[in-house]
Structure to design on (305 residues):
């Protein structure tokens, strides 16, 4: 950009705006944020507001916000911070380098990255590829891009054999940060997947919510790189554990048990729970032993959620 700028702007589903506004506030730089109205959690919305950003809540989805911020930054002295900006990818690629570094330069077989606007999947490829070119590793991991079934343009593109890319209308999903139907980094993502022998998978809404209620087995060597802290999505978790989500079984719901406030009732409930807990612990020990034996060939797999 050969013209002066007075602020930094982005379109966001929550995470980009939180980071951008925080760093801008620390540096004394004005930040401008375009958010889709009523499509992000309150916990995500409060972050750019609290950091002093100028927030525009627009009556469109993320794709509409992205289109508008591109047009606006082409006309006004506002620096675009979305993944169209190659400098952003330079920062994002360091996560891939750090993974290799923390594993003493042993390369995992797989790296799984959630995909929305698709800058991350390319940035990870770039980081891994750079380490290979420098001779720090002798290969790169296979990449997996995971999308929500309600917002899955890359998955459909992959299943078509990489035919003509067709944007989709992203439907509401609990994974609101990747509720994107027309990703700006589609070409980069396809390049990264093709050159890493990568694949694309999707998860239904039920699979997403069930996954939030489970833990990764101890036997798996796992790295979780995630900005999706549970406190950002409290309402969906309350609804899940209250079994109050239409058309979802909520198989792992853990609602509070309603008990009369007398000693006998409390004792009865706790005795039943402790008996059940003992049986579960025995099963879990046996399950962990089985998993340990079966998982030995998979211990070099990294999952990024």
């Amino acid at each position: 950009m050969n013209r002066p700028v007075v602020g930094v702007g982005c379109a966001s589903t929550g995470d980009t705006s939180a980071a951008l506004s925080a760093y801008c506030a620390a540096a004394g730089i004005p930040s401008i944020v375009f958010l889709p109205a009523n499509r992000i959690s309150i916990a995500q919305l409060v972050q750019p507001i609290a950091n002093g950003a100028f927030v525009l809540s627009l009556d469109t989805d993320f794709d509409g916000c992205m289109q508008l911020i591109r047009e606006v930054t082409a006309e006004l002295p506002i620096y675009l911070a979305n993944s169209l900006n190659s400098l952003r990818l330079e920062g994002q690629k360091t996560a891939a380098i750090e993974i290799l570094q923390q594993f003493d330069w042993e390369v995992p077989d797989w790296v799984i990255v959630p995909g929305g606007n698709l800058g991350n999947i390319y940035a990870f490829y770039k980081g891994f590829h750079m380490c290979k070119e420098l001779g720090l590793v002798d290969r790169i991991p296979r990449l997996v891009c995971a999308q929500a079934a309600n917002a899955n343009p890359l998955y459909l593109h992959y299943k078509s054999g990489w035919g003509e890319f067709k944007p989709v209308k992203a439907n509401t999903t609990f994974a609101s940060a990747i509720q994107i139907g027309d990703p700006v980094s589609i070409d980069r993502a396809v390049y990264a997947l093709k050159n890493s022998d990568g694949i694309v998978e999707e998860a239904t809404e039920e699979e997403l919510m069930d996954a939030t209620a489970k833990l990764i087995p101890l036997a798996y060597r796992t790295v979780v790189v995630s900005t999706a802290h549970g406190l950002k999505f409290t309402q969906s978790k309350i609804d899940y554990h209250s079994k109050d989500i239409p058309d979802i079984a909520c198989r792992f719901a853990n609602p509070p048990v309603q008990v009369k406030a007398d000693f006998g009732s409390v004792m009865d409930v706790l005795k039943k729970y402790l008996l059940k807990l003992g049986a579960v612990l025995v099963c879990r020990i046996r399950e962990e032993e089985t998993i340990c034996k079966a998982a030995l060939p998979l211990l070099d797999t990294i999952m990024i959620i």
Summary: The CA atoms of residues 151 and 170 lie 5 Å apart.
